[in-house]
Amino acid sequence: MRTVADVSAAADNIAMYDSNIPPGYDGLEPGFVVVAGTSASSPFIAGVVGLAGNGTTITAAFPYQHRGGFFDVVGGSNGFCGGDYLCDAVKGYDAPTGVGTPDGTSGL
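Given the sequence above, the corresponding structure tokens read:
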């Protein structure tokens, strides 16, 4: 059932600290910048895998075998097409959000 995403994470308008950012950049406090997309969600998912303590043993099948560890995303679209699970977030697995967003560490 895999197409694109196995899991997902919110990744829009996230303030991230970077010691190389000058004061006032992006209208934020010194050192902060707004990030979005994979640059924000990938480190988050990696952190959840790390907290779960199985970073060296997790397989691609693990999230599918532990779907109870995720919030199912049932709305929204990847913006490329529409009308089916390949483009829209629907109940259960879908291409834009996979099995959903982590609800703690049990799914990863």
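The longest strand covers residues 14-17. Try to locate this feature in the token string yourself.
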